[in-house]
Task: structure prediction
Amino acid sequence: MNKSQLVEKLAKTENLTIKTAEEVLNTIFKEMEKSLIRNSRIEIRGLGSFKIKKYDSYNGRNPKTGKIIKVEGKKLPFFKVGRELKERVDYT
Result:
């Protein structure tokens, strides 16, 4: 399922216009993004949680040349599946 399909499903289920449903989803996603930028954890019961994981820098290798390069540290969003969703998916 992609975002436009999710918008259509929300609009149909909640009897909203496509535009309103898209605004609702955009607001939710934007607030989630802001929360992650502030390094806050997001937990959605029954689905899972989002958090920012910090990765240290390391020495890597360029696959084309074989030359050793320094890979800078970075922070990336990480999603951990909740137990309920994991059980529902495994059940099917």
